Amino acid sequence: MSELSPYLASVAKTIDHMIDRYFVDKTGELNKASAHLLAAGGKRLRPAVMMLAADAVTSGSSEELLHAALALEVTHTFTLIHDDIMDDDSLRRGVPTVHTKWDMPTGILAGDVLYARAFEHLCMAHAKDDAKVRAVTMLARACADICEGQHMDMSFEHRSDVDEDEYMEMVKKKTGVLYAAAAGIGAVLAGGNAVQVKALYNFGLNIGIAFQIQDDLIDLVTPAETSGKDQASDLREGKQTLLMIKAREKGLDLSKYRRDLSAADINKAIQELTDAGVIDEVKQMASDLVSASNKNLAVLSPSKERQLLMDIGAFFVTRSF
Amino acid sequence: MSELSPYLASVAKTIDHMIDRYFVDKTGELNKASAHLLAAGGKRLRPAVMMLAADAVTSGSSEELLHAALALEVTHTFTLIHDDIMDDDSLRRGVPTVHTKWDMPTGILAGDVLYARAFEHLCMAHAKDDAKVRAVTMLARACADICEGQHMDMSFEHRSDVDEDEYMEMVKKKTGVLYAAAAGIGAVLAGGNAVQVKALYNFGLNIGIAFQIQDDLIDLVTPAETSGKDQASDLREGKQTLLMIKAREKGLDLSKYRRDLSAADINKAIQELTDAGVIDEVKQMASDLVSASNKNLAVLSPSKERQLLMDIGAFFVTRSF
């Protein structure tokens, strides 16, 4: 994986530069609100997946598709802005959320502006028109699915009986489909055939689901100083993550942790989940998803980019923040 | 204009049928919330403008473009759902608004789902791919402008010094550009050349602005039983409409009407505005915009559809609800 870090750094630099050019350097309060979270950093993983998928299909094609890579980051950011309103979160990427820094109406509109700009930039990619039409359709369907996933996630808050299938369906929609669209759009715009597009779409879907499962693990085990987020917030809020669902299925009662938690409390919960085999099982599921996702890549010729796609999958389930 | 009413009725029937098929007949709470306002009726004027523009460019082409017509209605509805949240309005088209019937997060998501579906349906139109890419770009830019217009409109609430130019800019973005996009997209998808597309875009822009000015007039002079909306709400709320701006420019003080108003109060305000020539001036401006918009249509061969486009413009500034 030694080549992945510099690759991701270079993509992030390119995307950051485009964000400055097309979003930050604009006047007007609504444009500022729209650019706020985009400019607050981020790993730019969806653009990286899109560009690698494109290059894995047609070497060197991603250079022509930077606007489409930007479109994926912009789409992701619009969903974050709207999610933050719904969840009334006040901090994201170390900065105040848009509706906190401005107000709720401005947050809705800032997200809506980015939503439009995503489709506009997707159409600005240098690719064949039929491919662009397919890419627009793929992005639109992903956006509708993300909404459905967020709606499911919120509905889970009122329930304590969510099962594994429901959780997987929610995560597939909320997180998986945008990675699927990223890889699929890269393949489509690079001129990939139907088999390649489908394979890369499925690759993205699986690593996206694995990404979210790992996110839930990170929430539990990574101290705030490393992750930048409150540790064990899911546990405290009784959130229906895969960890919690598996724990419940094994008869563990985690409801006692739905309160302010000390570091010792968190360690006790981690120990309990470890002893019951829950953490290992969840890690195994994420790891199995990544292995399954790699099988999709067999339809592509070996290349540096194909290897980097596998490295990204491996990174998704080993990262600690 | 005798042919306009049956034409509009037939478009509305077609669009209503598509709404039933693609939105109402879906399961799941979020889909129900997304379909709620779409299914609550509406004159389907943007689809009509799109279809007439297409047929005025290439006779009979609109039959192939029904999905694009639907996309415009869906776009309009998504903006209404989000606007209702921002303005915290509880009634629209005689039904509870989405965030009132469900909740704010569901309202945001229902709008976001429609936003995606609009682009998906636009891509489902039977047209050339290059035309569809241009149409997607046009719709995306219109959406970003609508957000900007709504943001301007909200910022006006805290001001009492909005001038005519600012008002016109706001209305252009909030209402004009979607009619412009409707006519422009119809022309593009029907295979229109650059001159025709630009002419129809500008036609739509002007009648859209005139439509909004007429809406402000209707708010003042049309009783609730005819318009279905509270009479004189703009006056009561001190909203910066063209009427109010012109009145202020003429030295009229309408701030005394910022309170609960009886029918007699409203009549007194109407009399005051009539005597000062404000109502006539505003009517003239709307009428001039429609005349100007018709000049754009000179690049098209005479046809039934070109005439119906002119009739729609005339209808926009004579309607009383």
Model description:
Two copies of one chain form a homodimer. The first copy, chain A, is an all-alpha fold. Helix content of chain A is 73%, strand content 1%. Chain A has a single domain (4-316), classed as Farnesyl Diphosphate Synthase, CATH 1.10.600.10. Chain A contains 15 helices and two strands. The longest helix of chain A has 28 residues, at 129-156. The radius of gyration of chain A is 19 Å and the shape is globular. The mean pLDDT of chain A is 95.
Work out the helix count of chain A.
Answer: 15
Largest sheet report of chain A: 2 strands, antiparallel
Approximately how much helix is present in the residues of chain A?
A: over 70%
Structural class of chain A: mainly alpha
Rg of chain A computed from alpha carbons, rounded to a whole number of angstroms? 19 Å
The strand line-up of the biggest sheet of chain A is: 1-2
Q: What is the C-level CATH assignment of chain A?
A: Mainly Alpha
The low-confidence parts of chain A are: none
What distance lies between the first and last C-alpha atoms of chain A, to the nearest angstrom? 17 Å
What does the average pLDDT of chain A come to? 95
Strand content of chain A: under 5%
How many discrete structural domains of chain A? 1
- DSSP summary, beta strand count of chain A: 2
**CATH topology name of chain A:** Farnesyl Diphosphate Synthase
Query: Which two chains touch over the largest interface?
Result: A-B, 39 and 39 residues
What is the overall silhouette of chain A?
A: globular
Mind telling me which CATH architecture of chain A this is? Orthogonal Bundle
